[in-house]
Amino acid sequence: MKALKPALLAIAGIGLLLLLLSFAVESLESIRWTALVVGLAAFSMHTENRIARAAVGTAVLAALVFFFTEIVSDTAIGRKNIDLTEDDRFTLTEGTKSILAELDDPVTINYYVTRDIEGASADIKRYIPRVDNFLEEITGLAKDDNITLNFIDPQANTDEEDAAILDEINIAQVGENGRLFFGASISSLDQKKVIPYFNPEAETQLEYDVISAIAEVTVRNPPVIGLVTPLNMSTGGQSRKGQAIHSELQNSRKLADLGMGVITQLPAIYEANEWGEAPDYLDPERIPVVLVVHPAEITPEAEFALDQYLLRGGNVIACVDSLSLAAQQTAQQPQFPGMPPQGGTPTVSTLPKLFEKHGIVTSGSEVLFDPKFAPDNPFFSVYNKDDMAIQDDITLASIQNLVFLAPGAFTSIEAKGLEVSRILKSSDRSGFIPDTRVKASFQNPQSLTKGLVSKDKGYDLVVRLSGEFETAFPDGNPADKKEDEEEKDSDDKKDEKAEEEKKEDEKEEPKTEALKKGTATGNLILVADSDFIMDRVAYGYRQALTTQGVQLRAVPLSGNGPFLLNIVDQANNSAHLIGARARTPVMRPLTVFKDLEAEYEQTIGKKVKAIQEELDAANKKLSELVQKRAAEGRARFTAEETKFYFDAQKERAAKEREMREEQKGLQSDIDAIKSGIFLKSLLIVPGLVILAGIGVFIYRRMSTQAR
User: Fold this and answer.
1) Domain contains 495
2) Quick one: the chain helix, strand, coil %, rounded to 5?
3) What are the DSSP calls for 249-271, one per residue?
């Protein structure tokens, strides 16, 4: 033991020396506290003084607990938590976990936040740790540690500040001279997405904003959006250069016109994108979203292609209609006046086989009119955000209104085995009018709603079906049956050589076997109006002065265009983001107190109204007495009038005193609830510790007695 003492003293001395040197030598800074703990531990074992040993040992134990806590908190284990909140507000969504689990490429998050700044609001100070914890949590869950998180504090006149400005992080003025950076740039290889500012007011979208940015920068080959429509959206519109939504999809994303055949254009699309040989089906990996606009008279073969696409996990946005005004404009004007337009695209559209399979019933050729949301022009129905059934859907996050032009509706949806999200419904005052009557009333729209019959129920306008679909074509591809019938009819006209050549061709190009059940989660988003994305409803055009002169520029008239683009972008970045929800705010409103106040207002309001009526009656009587006295030329009230006046004043004082007592009662109830919450929070945990201690004491006492 004597030989060990010099060694322990030497270790303690070296620890103290390294501690002192770490303040002068930057490279030793990382071992500063380790040297202190080792030195103290060695000294505690060297000294023979029990008090000194206990004191130093206690300090060493506290230091070890502190460093162990810090080390664990920096690992994935330290970020584990148990979410006991009612709505899982601290739990990541399954979509987020799936995206992080599938992350193959490295992602760098440069997180800029000014830590030490005076004058920052309480919301900012509370929100910064929330963002810190969230970013650390997703970093720990990323596959193969593919997310690198850099905490950067951009102080004034530093390289960090220059980096924040270069990454286009917003600068918020705090106080008189304070500059707050609070944003992030998320990059992967050559792609970058910037969140310029983490707004505390948009806390519910924090998870979606970050995860969608990660999904966006890790997409290497921008996916193609398929378009299926009989309408020529590439021309016309207010700009005469195509519908604005078509131009937006074509310019900022890749757009492929699939035509009404759906798969007939695939060879050309695959060749243009250098994808190799095209299959005989729609591949969600290549084309993750298919936009179907007014599929009037769609063929069974084309609908089969969409059916198989959904079964493979595709995303279909189907805009069907009971009266497409865009389709009506394609009709040719008759040669004789008074005759209806001839030809053109039918104005009614649906997906008959898919809808029949999944129990989706539309209003057919009857047009929905909603007097509650179309007070000025019955053709246009304007639904505000408060009218939307799903308030927290990310696709609606920045949407203030959706506008429809003479839409249809989904009157019934069964969709067995699928998740049904009803995003928008009409009011219970809405009803249907045949399209023939609507077409005859364009010049006098106000007459349409006269005699409108309502069934006191709302109808679905925007719906999302999600899940593993079952095929609507149990007998397989209708094209195969059609070919078999054609072959049977032409057997007598074909010679054996032609038959052999056909068989050889079939052997060389085997057809893909039709799926009966879904192999991945598909999404079918249904909109009961196809005109809602056309220029007349979604966009307007204004003249703008540009470098090329005066040009027409598309200006959103409603949230229709952004709503559609939100859905497209969700599916483009990741299928896991479809149907994403905004998170619940961390700060919860005190609903109990608000309910008490509302109950008080309702109760006391009736009493106040009754008192006010009595006082008004008394004042009226007094006014009549004054007028009577003035008419009679008297200077004073009579004894009876004086008594009435003072009685009225006493009654007023009594009623006002009663109101004050009611207010005191309300405040007493609120104070009692607050005290109860405080006492519970203060006493529950210590009470549990005391009970546990008593239990341990009793157990040990019984064990000692047993011996």
Assistant:
1) no
2) 45, 20, 35
3) HHHHSEEEE-TTTSSTTHHHHHH
Distance in angstroms between the alpha carbons of the first and the last residue of the chain: 37
Residue 614: its H or E element: helix 591-632
Within this chain, do residues 287 and 376 fall inside the same structural domain, yes or no?
yes
Of the residues 523, 551, 577, which one is the last residue of a structural domain? Answer: 577
One domain for residues 695 and 617: yes
- As a whole number, mean pLDDT of residues 669-679 equals 72
Total number of domains constituting the chain:
4
- Please tell me whether residues 302 and 384 are part of one structural domain: yes
Final residue belonging to a domain, choices 166, 196, 217: 217
Residue 618, domain member (yes or no): yes
| Residue 548: per-residue pLDDT | 46
Q: What are phi and psi of 441, to 5 degrees?
A: -115, 20
C-alpha neighbours within 13 Å on the C-beta side of residue 529: 28
- The three-state secondary structure class of 499 is helix
Measured distance CA(359)–CA(274) in Å, rounded: 40
Residue type, 610: A
**Nearest in space to 321 (alpha carbons), one of 343, 360, 293:** 293
Residue (of 422, 423, 427, 414) closest to 457 by Cα position: 427
Over the stretch 459-502, which tens digit does the pLDDT of each residue have? 999 999 999 999 999 998 888 776 656 555 555 555 555 555 55
Q: Which residue has the tokens 């007998």?
A: 475
For position 295, what pLDDT does the model report?
95
Strands 380-384 and 401-405, by their bridges, are antiparallel
Model confidence at 230, pLDDT cuts 50, 70, 90, reads: very high
The tokens for 154 are 């951009």
DSSP secondary structure, 494-517, as one string: --HHHHHHHHHHHHHSPPPPPPSB
Residues 369 and 444 in one domain: yes
Q: Which residues are registered as beta bridge partners of 445?
A: none
User: Phi/psi of residue 286, each to 5°?
Assistant: -90, -40
> Does residue 583 lie in a domain region?
no
Cα dihedral across residues 23, 27, 31, 35: positive or negative: negative
For 282: left if phi > 0, alpha if psi spans -120 to 50, otherwise beta; the answer is beta
Q: In this structure, are residues 288 and 569 in contact, taking their beta carbons and an 8 Å threshold? A: no
In a domain, 155, yes or no: yes
Closest CA to 218 of 317, 99, 48: 99
Region for residue 336 given its phi and psi (left: phi exceeds 0; alpha: psi -120 to 50; beta: otherwise): beta
Alpha-carbon span 250 to 240, nearest angstrom: 16
Are residues 124 and 42 both part of a single domain? no
519 pLDDT exceeds 60?
Answer: yes
Distance of CA 423 to the CA centre of its chain: 12
Q: Residue 101: give the domain boundaries.
A: 94-217
Q: What pLDDT shows up at residue 650?
A: 77
- Residue that is written with structure tokens 């193609």 in the block: 224
- The pLDDT assigned to 201 comes to 81
188 and 246 housed in the same domain: no
For 73, other C-beta atoms within 10 Å of its C-beta total 11
Residues 375 and 302 in one domain: yes
**Which residue type, as a one-letter code, is found at position 87?**
D
Please report, for the domain that includes residue 305, its CATH number. 3.40.50
- How far is residue 659's CA from residue 665's CA, in Å, rounded to a whole number? 10
Q: Dig out the tokens for 490 from the structure.
A: 């032409």
The residues with which 291 forms a beta bridge, in sequence order, are 227, 317
Contact between residue 415 and residue 358 where contact means Cβ atoms under 8 Å apart: yes
Residues 529 and 658 in one domain: no
Of 536, 371, 361, 551, nearest to 460 by C-alpha is 361
Place 549 in a pLDDT band, splitting at 50, 70 and 90. very low
How does pLDDT run across 376-418, given as a tens digit for each residue?
778 888 888 777 777 666 667 667 788 899 899 999 999 888 9
